[in-house]
Amino acid sequence: MAETNTNQTDQQSNSQTPTNPPAQPAPEIDYEKLAGVVEGRQRAAGESALKNYLKQQGLTSEQMEDAIRTYKEQQAANTPDVDGLQTQLTQAQTAARQAQLESAATLEAVALGIDPKTIPYLIRLADISQAVSADGKVDNDAVKNALNQVLEDVPALKPQARQSAGIRIGVSSGTNNSNQSNDDALKAAFGL
After folding, report:
1. CA quadruple 107, 113, 115, 120: dihedral sign
2. What is the rounded CA–CA span in Å between residue 144 and residue 18?
């Protein structure tokens, strides 16, 4: 009867335990810590190999320390500065984008008939920094809109109707003063 009670207890305990145990969450892995451990071991293995090599060469402990220090200095000198390179890359990209914007603005200003002498001032006044699309390309319509906005704000920069240079036939509608200066110029030209 003791056996039947034990069997019944085993059956009850077996029926109470679920057939699929609950899934345990995967342990979190700190990859930075893992990389630090790997780097530390690699460094220790490298130093050990270096010391063994130097011992085989018959160097004293002081000479080994000097050789190891020199080796590490050379390695540090040959290692590129990633942060510095990244900063230089960002600066170069910014300068290239600015040059593209200024080139596009210059072309748009020429198309609008702006005097070449005033184009640099117009570009400085225009907010063309926002004329870059999401993919990094220059949006010519945005550049043109920025230039037009400056021309509306500062009408003195608008292109002026140019008077044609050359010989005029007939009476000038100008004042007598301009006729007199023309007469003076003619007299000087003919030596009168």
Report:
1. negative
2. 72
